[in-house]
Every structure is written in C-alpha cells, then in structure tokens.
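Fill in residues.
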C-alpha cells in the first residue's frame, strides 16, 4: 500500500469564488481511507498560503482520521494543522464542510474553524 499513489488522492488549490481569492483542500475517504501523511504537508502549505495572502481557507473533510498504518507521525501531522487553525483564528476566515463520516483529527480541526 505504501508504494501506491492513486491519481485522485485528495487535493489543494487556490481559486476564485465570485471574484475573491480562496484556498481549498479536500480529503477523500474513498481513496485508501485518506493517506493523511501525504496530505498533511499539502494542507499545511495551503493554510500558510491563505494566511500569507489574507484569503479564506475552505476544508472539505471526508476522513476517518489517522490511519493505523501511518502510526504516531500522523498525530504530529494533526498537531501541525491544529497549530495553523489557532494561528489563523481571527486572521482569516476558516470554513469547514463535513462531507461524510469523519473521526479523530478530521473532526477536531473543523471544530476549531470559524464556520462548519
């Protein structure tokens, strides 16, 4: 499983919604139950860009949380995301959508965003 990297493994992007710049990331549980360690760095990167540019960040969450195969390192990844959630609080709008059954860090991070 570690060597497999499907083409549709989550995404991060910047875009414009009706004019203003926004940053978006998504997790898709249907792809290996989310490969969080791979996505964590990308989520952190997009959150950093959103804060640097003063733009909202939107998270589309469909994740079972940390995968047992990824071990303790995935918990450190959630800590990086939670840190960015708190640093962005009151600075940029953080919007989360729970798109399916979620557990663990996949619900803790949205819980501390501005809109769910």
């Amino acid at each position: 499983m570690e060597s497999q990297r499907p083409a549709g493994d989550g995404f991060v992007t910047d875009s414009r919604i009706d004019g203003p710049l926004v940053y978006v990331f998504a997790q898709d549980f249907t792809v290996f139950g989310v490969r969080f360690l791979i996505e964590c760095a990308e989520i952190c990167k997009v959150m950093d860009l959103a804060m640097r540019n003063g733009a909202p960040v939107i998270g589309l969450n469909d994740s079972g949380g940390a995968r047992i195969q990824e071990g303790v390192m995935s918990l450190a990844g959630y800590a990086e995301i939670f840190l960015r959630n708190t640093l962005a609080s009151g600075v940029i709008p953080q919007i989360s959508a729970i798109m399916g059954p979620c557990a663990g860090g996949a619900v803790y991070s949205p819980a501390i965003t501005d809109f769910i």
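The helical segments are 36-53, 71-88, 105-111.
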